[in-house]
Amino acid sequence: xxxxRDCDEVLVGLARRYPAQVSHVSSSVMHGRPELFLDHVHTxxxxxxxxxxxxxxxxxxxxxxxxxxGR
Length: 71
Description:
- By secondary structure, the protein is an all-alpha fold.
- Helix content is 49%, strand content 0%.
């Protein structure tokens, strides 16, 4: 589990250094939901679906064109 935290720390550090967005799945609503995991890493079908929803939600602002001001 510490290895996952270490990896997350590296990824967040890289996102700060470069223009990148990080979806914090480990701190999301998936945490503490054993029905979403087969073990401490692998998701169930429901877990995979929830993970996809989280990623999709984080991509919407990046994929939605900015509205022209004043229009």
